From TrEMBL:
It comes from the Bacteria. It holds the Pfam family TOBE_2. One of its GO terms (molecular function) is ATP binding. Residues 4-238 form the ABC transporter domain. Signal peptide: none annotated. Keywords: ATP-binding, Cell inner membrane, Cell membrane, Membrane, Nucleotide-binding, Translocase, Transport. InterPro entries: AAA+_ATPase, ABC_SmlMolc_Importer, ABC_transporter-like_ATP-bd, ABC_transporter-like_CS, AminoethylPonate_ABC_PhnT2, Mo/tungstate-bd_C_term_dom, P-loop_NTPase, Transp-assoc_OB_typ2. This is 2-aminoethylphosphonate ABC transporter ATP-binding protein.
Amino acid sequence: MAHLEIKQLSKRFGSFTALDRIDLSVAQGEFVVLLGPSGCGKTTLLRTIAGLERQDSGEIMHAGHDISHASPAQRDYGIVFQSYALFPNLSVADNIAYGLNSRRKIGVAGAVGALQRVADMLDLVGLPGCEQKYPTQLSGGQQQRVALARALATSPHLLLLDEPLSALDAIERVRLRSEIRQLQSRLGITTLMVTHDQEEALSMADRIVVMNSGRIQQIGTPQEIYRAPCNDFVADFIGRGNLLEATSQAQGNFLFGKVRLRCASAAVDVAAPRFYVRPEDIGLHAITDTPENSFTATVSKSEFMGSSYLVTLDTDMDQRKPLVAQFSSNYLEGSSIHPGALLRVSIPAERLRPMTSST
Ligand SMILES: Nc1ncnc2c1ncn2[C@@H]1O[C@H](COP(=O)(O)OP(=O)(O)OP(=O)(O)O)[C@@H](O)[C@H]1O
């Protein structure tokens, strides 16, 4: 049985459809990331699960209970928002204890129990001894750790994170994302996190739900989403990529302008073949070599990215956009990839991935 099950959930604001028949099943202990561009409905979905928005239709089941019409207080979750949302006039301890008080989970041990719980929570998020500080005395990352401690203080069975890292600087963001992931694994708490940052999603999620215009586009592991995007939107949104159109030839061969390539997959729509190639899947060869699926290309632009170069190539493939390749800096050591340079590149047959849908 799924720990969280969302069935045909729809939400409208006036005539605008923010969520359109969302189906999603989350397993116990899973870390699921809702990913999509601004305005696609991620936050609305999270808020509807929290009971902070009411759906127009559809169901939400949590641990076998129908919570579709339960009030936020009747639902069992902890939530962390993008802006730290701590009470500035309350100490760290009071901020964390607030959740305990409001949910009446202090128990018989009363205030002493609450103090111990606050201390335990601060240990858990790596801020021991910070009880008496105030939010303004903490960095952004520390404030989000306190917000996390507050969300976890009632031992909820569901953790909802709404862009918890987006207000932090780059270094703190990377640090906190691995801390959150480790903590989540350790506690085994089922977690849903909203982000529009694809790197964050790829590095943290067990599964990613890619959304656009209130609809789910694809659900899969980071590897599945990255390697096999199901449509143009996902292909475009996740990482860099080349969408290529071709005409069919015999025996798994396809013609891209003047360039003929073999595709190893049998799943090509031969009537309208379209493919997807990641920049890092493009090979670079000595100009005199002629491995399978290789062709010549002229460098039009070369950007140094640190560990790699991003190289824009003019080819005879006759596509709407130039081909973009990514070559490792180590591999290029000593060779010159400057605008105008003639290269021999290849798209290996198994890296030429068919697109099944253009929606
Ligand atoms: N209370 C509301 N009233 C009217 N429209 C709303 C309301 N809340 C959200 N919307 C609209 O619903 C759509 C989805 O909003 P939502 O906040 O869920 O998007 P999002 O994917 O989380 O985007 P972002 O990353 O920018 O927060 C947006 O077009 C937004 O303007």
